[in-house]
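USER:
Class, as today's exercise, take the chain set out below, and explain how the chain folds.
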Amino acid sequence: MNTLLLILNIAGLLLLVGILYSMHRKKISFSKRVFTGLGLGIAYGLILHFAYGTDSTVLQESMPWFNLIGTGYVKLLQMIVMPLVFISILGAFTKITIGKNFGKMAGLILGLLIGTTAIAAVIGISVTLLFGLDAKEIVQGEAELARGVSIEERSEGVADRPLPDQLIDLLPANPFLDFTGARPTSTIGVVIFAAFLGFAYLTLTRRDEKNAATVKKGIDAIYSLIMGVVKIVLRLTPYGILAIIATTVATSDFAAIYSLGKFVLASYVAILIMFGIHLIIITLSGLNPITYVKKAGEVLIFAFSSRSSAGALPLNIDTQTNRLGVPDGIANFAGSFGLSIGQNGCAGIYPAMLAVMIAPSVGQNPLEPTFLVTLIAIVAISSFGVAGVGGGATFAAILVLSALDLPIVLAGLLISVEPLIDMGRTALNVSGSMTAGVTTARVTGELDKDMYNAPLDKQTAEV
């Protein structure tokens, strides 16, 4: 009987995949296919959840088959992330317009990423205090205790080290090791290595124009090749979102979500407020925020469903350059740096909320000005190196809690609702990097306003 139900579950998923493929054959726009995939995934996930329950053997046996599409798609995206980050940063240095405004461009992007993270910390603190959240209110079950032990083990060698030493670890002693993603800070390691090569290229252009031209040609060729792979993978987005969101909804513990509803609500209130800050920044730069929301929608939906900022990078860069009018160089810098610096959700809101919740458990008054200023500063500094993959928020929490001498084991308190909250955090991370790219392009006068303001239905996606 279980085998028959398993086959039916898989057949149902394949039927929905067939619907999306049919839409592709009929030349229906990429945006509509993405949102259709999301809707079908939610509906099918709810059907499976209420038909079987999260503890059902049939459901547990079905999910690995769903992951062939969902997790398989994310793996393909992760496959191209490190090469894309590297060549995107290096390629940005070869753009002549970037060469003229490099200092201003880089300063604006980094300033926006770090500045918005500090603002996100303030919002996280404010919402936590407003809702009266306290770690003592959360009942620690087996899952929370196990997660706490896991976090303590993971933090060995990190929690007991001073912050300067942790920052030194960001530097890529072996960049080829970082290309494998072996360290939690591998992404920023690759970014730093690419930036050094980029500065070397700028020096070469002043001393040896002939060789510099050869280097530029080679970099541009590799960039075109990598982007070709990116476009192939991005065509699978509607199917990936369908499988990922169906799996997430089907396996979500609704009882835990209900019991921790106050914490989930507070988290999303903070996330939505910070997203509103992004729109205010867009507005202050003289652009229509509604246009931004419409054109960034696909990327944010994918980030929300996949919970991977790194996985969303190709779609992030593609949307900035082909729909929002951001030059290649700026889009590449903002998207790539946004993976490892200034993630508003995972490195800003989450660690700040957690610190304020945990502080009373060790006798620390979370309203003390010194504590609040220190917390905001540490959140901003420790946002360097947060990986844009699953678990980045936990790594950020470890750094912040250890710097404040708060118990790291309590970082596992929200394990039951972690996936649900992480979806919103990831979307906010990606929005932060896109906001930095659009705003920087606008301030430096390099934004293509005609492309930004062009109707979405007249902008044919290259996927």
About this structure: Confidence is low (pLDDT under 50) at residues 141-145. Residues 339 and 388 are 5 Å apart (CA to CA).
